[in-house]
Design brief:
CATH superfamily of the largest domain: P-loop containing nucleotide triphosphate hydrolases
Largest sheet: 8 strands, mixed
Structural class: alpha/beta
Order of helices and strands: HHHHEHEHEHEHEHEHEEHHHHHHHHHH
Helix content: 55-70%
Number of helices: 20
Number of strands: 8
Distance between the termini: 22 Å
Length: 449
């Protein structure tokens, strides 16, 4: 997510490295590259133009504090502007009613059905009791798809076989929810085009009858700026409360996530960045801006970790870290825990600079597999005594057993040592201070690279 934009922005900001002051010349070069990066990421041209003008206005004549350099100052200004155009604050869901009715709408193929299931799973973890309503009577197998996904996560689906009256389906679902004591009703509607008058009339009727507490418009980031045009057309017919962006894990350039809120004047409430049921995040503009600028998103990572990690196991690991006994078996165990949380690529993007600890020459998405192969090729004694691997013959044997080049193993061992030191420093603190200090430490480290 945003890797391409992140790399290009990093190159653009690198121009200012080594400069002691901000001048019209060096800031112009940097802003030109930032503009190119944003346009390449499919950000609306007018928004890019205004964005650059605001950054330039705030930069020139700004006194650089002795504790900062021009690059750090520009990063801060760019960060503030990114947060601003993405909506500044995360959009809160209105879940106060009992039952709360949530209407899902959007284009054909935008991922509404998958999102509806993910949302139900997400809300159940928040101690809600969701009911999915199969209200797509137009697409073949739409109801079966919803039931198939919901069955895997044990969430009920309401549907009426052979019924072609969507209002009747919605009406009966509300009665059913009351009987079964479900306090959230998620209505998965058919995909439609804004130019399709009949389909748009149908969604208007569903809206009028169900009187939803939340209307969420789902857009596929792969469609680029067309998604924004469609959202604008929909908003004229249906006053939706928020936007959901799907397929951010694909080959899209991410410009929709940056642009759509400021154009449509609606908050982005969720982003979906994977195929797994847990691959759904609340959209926080400040956290996404951090990721785009390569500063990671530790807060979101901690939330995911707290949700999935075994506290007793984690405490056991902490004790080992504090006593300098963290070994490869412990790393392997942590990797297995991390893999349970969700998309590895997304997790790595949340930690500033961590990708260098899991990157060999090649595809970064396979980095964990290589690490696991190296560790599995070690003896139990070697896993628990990392220092013994200073012996070249042991490393050569591991190289043959894992199929990993000796040079890559040497790099991994050095990175493991560096990572162990960072983890030990983190453990030296406690509570929220862990997150706060880690963020500052890693951001400062990243800015000075």
């Amino acid at each position: 997510m945003f890797e391409r934009l992140q790399n290009k922005l990093s190159q653009a900001l690198h121009i200012l490295k080594g400069h002691n002051t901000i001048t019209e010349v060096n800031i112009a070069s940097s802003l030109k590259e930032i503009a190119k990066s944003l346009i390449d990421a499919d950000v609306n041209y007018k928004i890019v133009k205004n964005f650059i003008q605001r950054v330039q206005k705030k930069s020139l004549g700004k006194k650089v504090l002795t504790s900062l350099n021009p690059r750090q100052l520009i990063i801060k200004i760019v960060y503030d502007e990114l947060v601003s155009i993405m909506g500044e604050k995360s959009g809160e869901m209105n879940l106060s009613k009992d039952p709360t009715i949530i209407l899902i709408c959007g284009l054909q193929g935008s991922g509404k059905t998958s999102f509806s299931s993910k949302l139900a799973f997400f809300l159940r973890k928040k101690n809600k009791f969701p009911l999915l309503v199969a209200a797509d009577i137009h697409r073949p197998a739409a109801i079966d798809q919803l039931k198939l996904i919901a069955e895997k996560i044990n969430i009920p689906v309401f549907s009426l076989k052979e019924c072609k009256n969507v209002i009747e389906i919605v009406s009966q679902s509300i009665i059913y929810a009351s009987k079964k004591k479900k306090n959230v009703i998620i209505i998965d509607t058919a995909g439609r085009l804004a130019i399709d008058a009949i389909m748009m009339e149908e969604i208007k009727k569903i809206n009028q009858y169900s009187n939803p507490d939340e209307i969420l418009f789902v857009v596929d980031t792969m469609t680029g700026q067309d998604a924004i045009n469609t959202a604008q057309s929909f908003s004229k017919v249906l006053n939706f409360d928020g936007i959901v962006i799907t397929k951010l894990d694909g080959d899209s350039r991410g410009g929709v996530a940056i642009t759509i809120s400021s154009v449509v004047k609606k908050p982005i409430k969720f982003i979906s960045n994977g195929e797994k049921i847990e691959d759904l995040e609340v959209f926080h503009p400040d956290r996404i801006a951090n990721r785009i600028l390569g500063m990671g998103d530790i807060v979101s990572l901690v939330e995911k970790v707290q949700d999935k990690f075994d506290e007793k196991r984690t405490q056991k690991i902490y004790k080992k870290i504090s006593k300098n006994r963290f070994g490869f078996s412990d790393l392997l165990e942590q990797i297995q825990q991390i893999k349970k949380i969700g998309n590895i690529k997304n997790l790595i993007s949340m930690i500033p600079g961590i990708d260098r600890y899991f990157s060999f020459s090649g595809n970064q998405t396979n980095s964990f597999k290589k690490v696991e192969a190296i560790i599995h090729s070690m003896t139990p004694y070697e896993r628990n005594h990392p220092k013994i691997l200073s012996d070249i013959r042991r490393r050569q044997r591991i190289s043959k057993g894992s199929g990993i080049k000796l040079n890559d193993i040497d790099i991994f061992l050095k990175q493991f040592h560096d990572m162990s030191q960072i983890m030990k420093k983190i453990h030296a603190h406690s509570g929220k201070k862990i997150v706060k200090d880690f963020i500052y430490q890693m951001i400062n480290k990243e800015r000075n690279v």
